[in-house]
Amino acid sequence: MNKVVRDRLAHLKGQVRSAREAQADLDPNYLIKGWLMGGATSVIYGPSNVGKTFLALKIAQAVASGTDWFGCKTRRQHVLYAAAEGGRAFENRVAALRAAEFDWITHPFDFHANAIDAQVLAHLYNEMNPNPAPGLIIIDTLARVMAAGDENSSVDMGLLIRNVDTLARMTGAHVMLIHHTGKDTALGARGHSSLRAAIDTEIELSRDEESGVISVMSRKQRDIGMGRDAYYSLAEVHLGTDPDGDAVTTCIVAEAEAQEPVVKDKRRPLKGHQQVAHQALLDALRDHGQKRSGPDFPGKPVVHVDHWREACKLHGLLNNPKSKDGGRNAYKRAKEWLMNSDYVRSYQDYWWVC
Q1: How far is 344 from 352, CA to CA, in rounded Å?
Q2: Which of 135, 283, 317, 343 could anchor a disulfide with 77, C-beta 3.0 to 4.6 Å?
Q3: Beta strands 103-106; 30-32: pairing state
Q4: Handedness of CA 150, 155, 161, 162 (dihedral sign)
Q5: Of 192, 102, 88, 188, which is closest to residue 138 (Cα–Cα)?
Q6: Number of helices and strands (H, E) in the chain?
Q7: What are the two backbone dihedrals, phi and then psi, of residue 272, each rounded to the nearest 5 degrees?
Q8: All structural domains of the chain with their residue ranges
């Protein structure tokens, strides 16, 4: 056994512990309880214009000030927001927070080809951090710090991950990346899958187009339980007026309630005799509906077929003088169509709507 192997073996022996020595960690090192752990890495991703930067700014302010984030406890730590996509628009967003307590810098960092930038940013953070405990560094966005790299390349993504790890290791801070989804949002964050494998926390943002409410969903947690969600909308903030007298505005995050999912009706649309028969059944249920007991009844009002038939007569579908059979075949076909198209159900001559 050569000296290098002996030294390595001696080092490893010193780290072996008995399982009997293990003790529960009852004081987790969190930044946002249930969402972000200290010293870890995370990605927040979503489609364009979903408000990723606005949410990241809310995270930055919550951790820097020690205030609750969507009802979750935080631990007050130093925060540095590295806005690689910065500019006047970003500064307006910071100003809208009113007395924000974190630090920020706008600079085109390169975490792909230039390994120095991660080290320089780490030294900058350490010099600025007045607290003994490490805090949070937000990188906005991954695409900008990827520079000339290819997000879909395992080699290029590996270089970026290595620089993120360097930044986290040198500072002890939680490093958060702001990222985008690809063309197919169902596939998650854009780029090579090695990113998801490497990070500790993954948070997805998606917008409900009808309500405008944005969902914040925990998609991966290495050391925390899953299943947490939060919801917000973007509220406009008036910052002042420009030299022409026009309003200057931006947005901030406003907490919102969860939206009930809208289930789209995939059934074929009603028309003609089917629509008449369906309306006749609704009228019959209104006038004669009753609940019947039994496992095969739906637990809501049902009506006997005779009442439905009478309602069809009132609507002109049956006893139709213009039809040779008085509309009987039209009524039969409409009833079958409604059944096959999941508009109605029946049991023992009693009918109800789906």
Answers
A1: 6
A2: 135
A3: unpaired
A4: negative
A5: 102
A6: 10, 14
A7: 60, -135
A8: 27-255, 272-353
Structure tokens at 141: 């966005």
Task: Please give the Cα distance from 220 to 201 (Å, whole number).
Answer: 5
Q: Which residue has the tokens 């002890």?
A: 172
Please give the backbone phi and psi of residue 163, each rounded to the nearest 5 degrees, phi first: -70, -35
State the burial class of residue 288 (Cβ atoms within 10 Å of its Cβ: 0-12, 13-18, 19+): middle
Examine domains 27-255 and 272-353 and report if their fold is the same: no
Token pair belonging to 217: 């969903």
For the chain, 354 residues long, give each residue's pLDDT as a single digit of tens: 788 898 899 889 888 888 888 887 777 789 999 999 999 999 999 998 899 999 999 999 999 999 999 999 999 999 999 998 767 789 999 999 988 899 999 988 999 877 799 999 999 999 998 777 889 999 998 999 988 888 989 999 999 999 999 999 999 999 999 999 877 776 778 889 899 899 999 999 999 888 889 999 999 998 877 767 999 999 999 999 999 999 999 999 999 988 776 667 788 888 889 999 999 999 999 999 999 888 888 889 999 999 999 999 988 888 777 777 878 889 999 999 999 999 999 999 999 998
Closest CA to 57 of 251, 206, 205: 251
Q: Is 11 left (phi over 0), alpha (psi -120 to 50) or beta?
A: alpha
**Residue 303 dihedral angles phi and psi, to the nearest 5°:** -140, 145
Three-class DSSP category at 272: helix
Q: For residue 294, report the phi and psi dihedrals to the nearest 5 degrees.
A: 135, 150
Q: Longest C-alpha distance within the chain, in Å?
A: 107
Contact 252, 259 (CB under 8 A): no
CATH number for the domain whose boundaries are 272-353: 1.10.10
CATH topology of domain 27-255: Rossmann fold (3.40.50)
Residue 291 in tokens:
């609940």
